Fold:
Amino acid sequence: MLDRIKRSFIKKGLEDRHSQRLLRSMKGIKPLSGVEIEVDGQRMLNFSSNDYLGLSNNPLLRDRAMEFILRYGSGSTASRLVCGNFECFEHVEKKIAELSGRQSALIFNSGFQANASLLPSLADRDTAILSDRLNHNSLIQGCLLSRCHVEPFKHNDMGHLEELLKKIRKNGKEKRILIVTEAVFSMDGDQSDIDTIIGLSRKYDAFLFVDEAHSTGLFGRNGMGLTSWKDVDITMGTLGKAAGSFGAYVACDTEVRDYLINFCYGLIYTTALPPSVLGAIDAAMDLIPGMDKEREELLNKADHLRKALSGLGFNTSTSTTHIIPIVIGDEEKTMALSRWLEINGILAVTFRYPSVARGDSRIRLTLSAAHTWEQIEMLIDLLRSWNNEFTKQDLHHRH
Ligand SMILES: Cc1ncc(COP(=O)(O)O)c(C=O)c1O
Structure:
């Protein structure tokens, strides 16, 4: 009897997802070389990874990870504030701060953990958070945990953001306001207007928080993101994507860093990252500033792919970066395209509700500097044949 009650929500949750054809499961992945992987035993070209610079298997990162293991051990033994603050943390943080043109940096265990815990540490119940409507789930969780008034602004709409800022400042001269945005948006691959947001944050005395998860390594001075060397209160960047390792960092001034060490629970109440991860980050930070050629070529390839997709009639939304969605809308059709690519040896994962709004299903292509032009042409050719097939079928149905 009790068992029936206590687990019924699990059964129902799974059944609902199943009947809506939204049930998710994980596949077994084996990395091969470059952008090749094995998915459940099938060899495929990967167009869904966040390894944007191909650093995840770079010898320098691997060697430095080993070196740090040999020097410091396999675990950091405690949280940073207890006795886990091994010298390698501050060494790497100094590098990140210098490259980003900021006074200091602070490593977090993951981007999700950083976002979910930073926002509550910066907001009190009276704070107003203005958050871009397309912000990532980790930022939404951070907003929810802040338990204050959260007002989403229309995606990348600076006019709307200013309207909200004006309204709040008019009624609350002393109110704390937090503006939260991504620099490159994870689902659409478009960029926020950083300079305008910085201007607005100054004009209305609002604290600015920018998530560079998909831009660290790829944009800005030294490749440290769109906010690199700019006047932003907190930049949060992740290290498990273009940096080829794991974890996240905050770049800020020393006062903000001191504040976070005292008030941010996602930093205080967790075991520090293992030294091997710090080793890989350390090596990534040596390589990233010198990768202008890779960055330029990656963006050229993305431009080429986007143009080809538009030419074939695909909707690539507002993408201007290495993240290129193919927005199909209909879930079944999106799944069908992804399956068809899979049969042809391409991994291009679908993103459906609840990751995106209902009716906004898409395949999200993510390019890496490790993709060759030939591999991109192969993808375009496959999409062209699918398009021909599908259009033919569609016409057939209509007659
Ligand atoms: C915009 C954005 N922020 C934060 C995260 C979370 O970062 P992490 O994977 O390091 O937890 C992600 C994705 O993973 C993301 O896309």
Observations:
- The longest helix spans residues 373-398.
- The first strand starts at residue 29 and ends at 31.
- Residues 110-112, 115, 136, 138, 182, 186, 211, 213, 238, 240, 248 surround pyridoxal-5'-phosphate (CB under 6 Å).
